[in-house]
Amino acid sequence: MLLTVAVAGISISGPLIAATAAPALAIAFWRNALAVAGLAPVMLLRRRARAELAGTDRRTLLLSLAAGAALAAHFGLWLPSLHLTSVASSVALATTTPIWATLLLRLLGHRPPASVWLGSVVAFAGVLLLTGVDLTVSAEALAGDALALGGGVAGAVYVLIGAEVRRTTSTTGYTFLCYGAAAALLLPVCALAGDSLGAGYSGETWLKLLALTVASQLLGHSLLNRVVRGLGPSVTSTALLLETPGAALIAAIWLGQSPPAAAYPALAVILLGLALVIRGERTA
């Protein structure tokens, strides 16, 4: 049930970001900063939470901060792509996280079965097909694809580090440190980019930022960080495959945004490849 809520929350993220009249990097900052503000009372008022935070060892702290840096990179790359290419293409490429996670695990000594490599090849073929479609649309769409793909790589680092930290740390403690680090890193990036963090924002924009924080950050990412400890990264990643059709459906209904017809086969190939990767990991 928690995983279903998490996937639903994350699925609305792409369309909601595309519909929010604020700079992409500013949106990335606020969704993390507002989440930290929401978690702060829990950390301050609960004795157990305060004790856990005070007793955080050096390894856990460094890993949580590293996860925050990876999350900041994920948002910093993916969110701008939503304004350059279609929501469906952007989300599909950003959710290639399981492929990159598999490759990173291989570098760390994990030996995936042949079906995982087959799935990786199939999914990557889908990526090439999708980027080829977007190249015919515009160079801007292709740039958006590249950013989304980079966001998927950063997302893999975030998931792998998070799975390790969650072995010994509570969801609240980990997310508080992780989101705090992400917000702290994104703040100077916004300043360097010259992105406004509030000037000229309408009430509607602030409501959308709040909705994004609650739905996608607190109910989405936080619940994923909770269930990954029990379900494992493979099962959790499998569920994330539903984000692509979910986001595409929401974008089509709400924003009237549909990718080119030729993009649908590419999206299907990517989903097939990712499914093979996860199935191979689960049977390993």
Automatic annotation (TrEMBL):
For the EamA domain, which residue ranges apply? 2-131, 143-278
User: What residue intervals traverse the membrane?
Assistant: 61-81, 87-108, 115-135, 141-161, 173-194, 261-278
Q: Which SUPFAM superfamilies match?
A: Multidrug resistance efflux transporter EmrE
User: What superkingdom does the record give?
Assistant: Bacteria
Q: Does the keyword Transmembrane apply?
A: yes
Q: Does the keyword ATP-binding apply?
A: no
Keywords from UniProt, A to Z, are: Membrane, Transmembrane, Transmembrane helix
The Swiss-Prot or TrEMBL record describes its family as follows: Belongs to the EamA transporter family.
The protein here is known as DMT family transporter
Q: Which organism is it from?
A: Streptomyces litchfieldiae
